[in-house]
Amino acid sequence: MIHPTAIVHSNARLAEHVSVGAYSIIGEHVEIGAGTVIGPHVVIDGHTCIGSHNRIFQFCSLGEIPQDKKYANEPTRLEIGDHNTIREFCTFNIGTIQDAGVTRLGNHNWIMAYVHLAHDCQVGNHTIMANGATLGGHVHVGDWAFLGGLSGIHQFVRIGAHAMTGFQTRLAQDLPPFVTSAGNPAAAHGINSEGLKRRGFSSASIMAIKRAYKTLYKSGLALEDAKEAIQGQLAECPELQLLVDFLAAATRGIIR
């Protein structure tokens, strides 16, 4: 299932039923799991591990060295999980020794064209990144997050689970779970209610999350007081633990 014009290094490890399209190049330290389909004109290099049943479309570059002047050819990695769709012209770089040394993309993600994952990004599961979304180095993205087209995420920013950015959002501070943001610079615009409904959150849980949002953004409370108030709302909505934990760990500040 390897096209005769593809170049696959003899040391690369390809599982059963991997397909490699015309003129694609697979490097020496690459491992690809069963059932993954690599389109034409794809370059996969570096210490890159790709799981099973992914589909990678034409003209992607995965596992290249970071766009970081400090990088000095250390054997850092790119890890991609299972059941991801990665559309045309995406670029994912390996990590750096200044962080965990690995860039990660989890499972069941839908990555549209021209998305960039810089070095040391950590992306969870079931995310959607629309065309042209760009993650600077060291960005963390939680499960089920949605990044709108041409969103620009500053390095070291964290995006919480179920959060959402609108078209052309410029995000330079952390975006808490459940919160929808848009603008340049980004501002909060309510919670991702529609996404939560699609994922099976009950009406009561969504109402409790809206209440927590109002506590954080509309009550006039200082951040520490708002965090304490949301802690007190956990009993009625255990899903708020995501928000409580995120706020406790925030170091860059949140959009507010």
Helix and strand topology:
Elements: E1 7-8, E2 13-14, E3 19-20, E4 25-26, E5 30-32, E6 37-38, E7 43-44, E8 47-50, E9 55-56, E10 61-64, E11 77-80, E12 85-86, E13 91-93, E14 102-105, E15 110-111, E16 116-117, E17 122-123, E18 128-129, E19 134-135, E20 140-141, E21 146-147, E22 152-153, E23 158-159, E24 164-165, E25 170-171, E26 179-182, E27 187-191, H1 193-198, H2 203-217, H3 223-231, H4 241-249
Describe the structure.
The protein has 256 residues and is an alpha/beta fold. The protein is built from four helices and 27 strands. A ten-stranded mixed β-sheet has the order 3-6-9-12-15-18-21-24-26-27, covered by helices on one side. A nine-stranded parallel β-sheet has the order 1-4-7-10-13-16-19-22-25, with no helix packed on it. The protein has an eight-stranded parallel β-sheet with strand order 2-5-8-11-14-17-20-23, with no helix packed on it. It is elongated, with a radius of gyration of 20 Å. The mean pLDDT is 98.
